[in-house]
Amino acid sequence: MKTDNKYPGMSLIVKNTAKAVMGLIFLFGIYLTLYGHISPASGFSGGVVFACTFILMTLAFGKDVVLKFLGKTTAYVLNCVAALLFLLIASLGVFYSGNFFENFLEKMYPSANFRLFSAGVIPFYNLLMAINIGAGLFMVFIIFAVRRVVDTDGKRKLISTEFFDIKKGESQ
Amino acid sequence: MIYTLCFVLFLVGLYGVTCKKNIVKIILGFLIMEHSVNLFLILLGWKKDGITPVLGKGMSSDMLVRNAVDPLPQAMVLILIVIGLGILALMVAFAIRLYQKYGTFDITEMNKLKH
Amino acid sequence: MIETLISMLIFFMIIGAIIALETTDLLSAVISIGAIGSVASICYLFVGAPDIASTQLVVEVLTIIILIRATIRHDLITIDGDREFFGLTITLALIFVLFLFGIKAFNNLFDFGNPAISQLPEAPSNRYLACGFQETGANNILSAILFDYRGLDTFGQLCVLFAGIWGAFAIMRVQSRRKKTGKGDGNEDR
Q1: Residue of chain B whose Cα is closest to the Cα of A40
Q2: Under an 8 A CB cutoff, do C136 and A122 touch?
Q3: How many domains are contained in chain C?
Q4: Is the ipTM of this complex over 0.95?
Q5: What is the pTM (predicted TM-score) of this model?
Q6: pLDDT of residue C75
């Protein structure tokens, strides 16, 4: 697979198909996440679908395009902040209702059932779980895609292809 | 019968973990064991002519108690599947580091403490 | 009826597992793992767990991508063959003994299609099914269990996933934190 510098990534057919399909996949992820409490779906599968969208973008267009949308630092921050907010909402239940992981919103403001925003804090938990899993898995994939073991005169090294040009053999 | 088939699948994975030389094959053995355990836990909660534990409009909770399958193993397996992905990432990272250290995926070659 | 169907599907999974472990081509092995996961997702659909099925399918895609991306790039010599004969024989004998014990143990379980919640009325799942909708307002009982009744388990999952992902990230790190000068890229003694 020879890549051109001007047009990195895969061929034209793959790129156009990915452009057409990508938005729909992302929309499906949003659906799975937001309807987690009223239909057979959950934030877990929604998060993995989010990660799959960005992975499809990486495989089709190259990593420079996708890192403009969702940088590595942004992915780290999203992963950590979603986990901390999960813990924060869980511990808000202690202050408002007395129990860890108590559904305090549903007890204070009981809402109509079968709606998008019903069931208290469960949609927020779903959303945070999806953000955490999507950012984390995208992060892992980017790490595996960027690092590569090269064999330079008998010694193998693990290099990062972001800052390293294989043809020249030196850091940029 | 059906549980025994799940256990056979688990044993095939165990054979891969214990008897294979290639480290990628060992990782695949772990994945097979994970699949078999997940499947066993789900099958343990199946009720005859069972329905999904999701309350539709116009259904009462009694109907769910009478007909629905066991929701507790399903929730735990949903967690387990996603954890498996994280563990897989960790195992693959170890495999790549070992390849960088020793130049091979063969675990019988990896007997030197210092390269 | 459904028992025969699922038995056949698990039989396909066993065949796929043996192919994945015994083939010499690593790419074929990874694709066989994908086939096993897809058949498992079909099984989940038949036993009333559609959300597990969708999650399993999506996770399977990601598993194949990670395995291919991480292992195929290194110019592999295909390593086949097992370990030496003596150890292999002992291991297979032990696995067979384990199989006999397993048959003994699985005969004591409840029958397929007649789970514990229909025989024990005080099982926790019955309470979740009966009161979950009124107490949490979520009509997907799985969500009610995951984020309300068993929220601490979900939090443990989050911690394990967090540790796994950041552990993989730390193992794959290239530069050492301390900036070394003249000693390569800090990659040799790890």
Answers
A1: B54
A2: yes
A3: 1
A4: no
A5: 0.86
A6: 53
